[in-house]
Amino acid sequence: MLAWFLLLCAPLMFGWIRASELTFELPDNAKQCFYEDITIGTKCTLEFQVVTGGHYDVDCRLEDPDGTVLYKEMKKQYDSFTFTASRNGTFKFCFSNEFSTFTHKTVYFDFQVGDDPPLFPSENRVTALTQMESACVSIHEALKSVIDYQTHFRLREAQGRSRAEDLNTRVAFWSIGEACILLVVSISQVVLLRSFFSDKKTTTTRVGS
Amino acid sequence: MICYSLYYYFIKLNSLYFHIGETEKKCFIEEIPDETMVIGTYRTQLWDKQAGSFLPSTPGLGMHVEIKDPDAKVILSRQYGSDGRFTFTSHTPGEHQICLHSNSTKMALFAGGKLRVHLDIQVGEHTNNYPEIAAKDKLTELQLRARQLLDQVEQIQKEQNYQRYREERFRMTSESTNQRVLWWSIAQTIILIITGIWQMRHLKSFFEAKKLV
């Protein structure tokens, strides 16, 4: 009975506190907003990083339910902002690429609300954790930060890699293009010069006399 | 009590949400190593003009979910209801694209022009439901914690393997660029010299023929 109750309550507990991380594409002159309902007193963290596009910068703005701007940065490449919800309601954060005319940006963000859900929902926190348990908790926290650093490293590496692949294709196209232009220009130069001397035979005699 | 907790479960899926237009397609990118499980859950709410608020749920409205692997091959393309849950496991490492768009053709439904979509995408070890695992395998708290740490370390290992693969790709791209720059510079210089020589010879013979030289 207890196990069944646990199973039933588990999604309830699991869905209580969230960490949402998403990577999306922000077209030029576009603005994308995300909303989340937060209860008062919850500690939240918003982290974002621009993965590809232009100068790797984006405008970010975080507002509380009253519309007060809690965080506003223009053309930022990467940032992390922690705040405690001062009231209940829907918090809104927007990413804007409106200053850019033709570059699409890929933006990654990680919005953490509250702490992690407890492993055992029915666990009573009256008794203190044993040494083993607190060691496990600290290892868990350390591993979480390792995973977080890995993510940011992967995003930076994706930046460099997309630039390198861009460069590779551009070098190929431009080299072929330049070779063709070279050939076309040199042949047309010769043809043009020939045309100067072939048609104007009658005119040169007229100018001469 | 059971009904209440079930209802509470559905309502509590109040994660991050955003607004989507009727024909708008929203895509999200997940860069993941291979053999990683991804579970996405979404819930839609339609704007009700009369009530001036969003309806709690929208029966009859569906969302089309399309997932592409790094080679742009579609691995999942399915229609779900207004609330849905999609799962996939990656078989190749790389950028997977998850796209959502509504299947609504009735313009009247979108009179307000907005559909609210609650979305939650969990990747890798976040997909594990620890209370469920504990109940199924009958683990003590310490065993469950150890299990969680093992899963985390496994995810770190997979990510590092993927990083090694990415670094190899990056290195190959850079070396290819290096080769291309080298060969194309040599080729262009040769073309330049050859066309220069050809031009001079051709013009010289042309002027000699025209008796100008």
UniProtKB/TrEMBL annotation, chain A:
Leader peptide range in chain numbering: none
Localization annotation: Cytoplasmic vesicle, COPI-coated vesicle membrane; Cytoplasmic vesicle, COPII-coated vesicle membrane; Endoplasmic reticulum membrane; Endoplasmic reticulum-Golgi intermediate compartment membrane
Membrane topology summary: Single-pass type I membrane protein
Record keywords: Cytoplasmic vesicle, Endoplasmic reticulum, Glycoprotein, Golgi apparatus, Membrane, Protein transport, Signal, Transmembrane, Transmembrane helix, Transport
GOLD domain ranges (all copies): 31-113
Keyword Protein transport attributed: yes
SMART domains: EMP24_GP25L
Function: Potential role in vesicular protein trafficking, mainly in the early secretory pathway. Appears to play a role in the biosynthesis of secreted cargo including processing and post-translational modifications.
Protein name (Swiss-Prot/TrEMBL): Transmembrane emp24 domain-containing protein 7
Lineage: Eukaryota, Metazoa, Chordata, Craniata, Vertebrata
From TrEMBL, chain B:
Transmembrane domains' residue ranges: 181-200
Keyword flag Oxidoreductase: no
All residue ranges annotated as the GOLD domain in the record: 25-123
Keyword Endoplasmic reticulum: yes
Extent of the signal sequence: none
Cited Pfam families: EMP24_GP25L (PF01105)
GO CC terms in record: endoplasmic reticulum membrane
InterPro entries: Emp24-like, GOLD_dom
Family of the protein in this entry: Belongs to the EMP24/GP25L family.
Name the UniProt record assigns to this protein: Transmembrane p24 trafficking protein 4
Organism per entry: Cyprinus carpio (Common carp)
